[in-house]
Design goal:
- One of its GO terms (cellular component) is endoplasmic reticulum.
- Keywords: Membrane, Transmembrane, Transmembrane helix.
- The protein is built from 5 helices and no strands.
- It folds into 3 domains: 30 residues; 34 residues; 54 residues, no CATH class.
- It starts with a helix and ends with a helix.
- The protein is mainly alpha-helical.
Length: 122
């Protein structure tokens, strides 16, 4: 089948037409090349992740939650930050006393963590 197509001049013309169209419309690449904007975004992401790790180790003296639980770090963590920003900026609460309940749970978790950390040091 392939040898027959190679001998057919119509096939050659079709291939050259296709090649010309690919060149004309620059449709060779499926993904665009890395632009300056993409490099800036990549640099910002790397800088922020680096800041997260350094901040956690230097100031909190513990590993970031990313290392404990990937689901929490990538799914529930961003929602928590979004809700915190909406609450602080707009006073938004999904239901009455939501912020107070979440803050109480966070404070209890921090207290528990500190107690466990203190016990480990003894």
């Amino acid at each position: 089948m392939g040898a027959h197509a190679l001998k057919n001049p119509l096939w050659h013309n079709a291939i050259f037409d296709e090649y010309d169209a690919l060149e004309r419309y620059q449709s060779w690449t499926i993904f665009p090349s890395i632009s300056t904007y993409n490099l800036v975004v990549l640099a910002a992401q790397l800088f922020c992740w680096w800041g997260q790790f350094i901040g956690h180790y230097v100031f909190e003296k513990r590993a970031p939650a990313l290392l404990d639980n990937f689901i929490q770090a990538f799914l529930t963590g961003p929602f928590f930050v979004l809700l915190e920003a909406l609450q602080m900026g707009l006073g938004y609460e999904p239901y009455p006393d939501f912020h107070a309940r979440v803050k109480a749970k966070v404070d209890a978790n921090i207290k528990e963590w500190k107690e466990n950390d203190r016990k480990k040091k003894l």
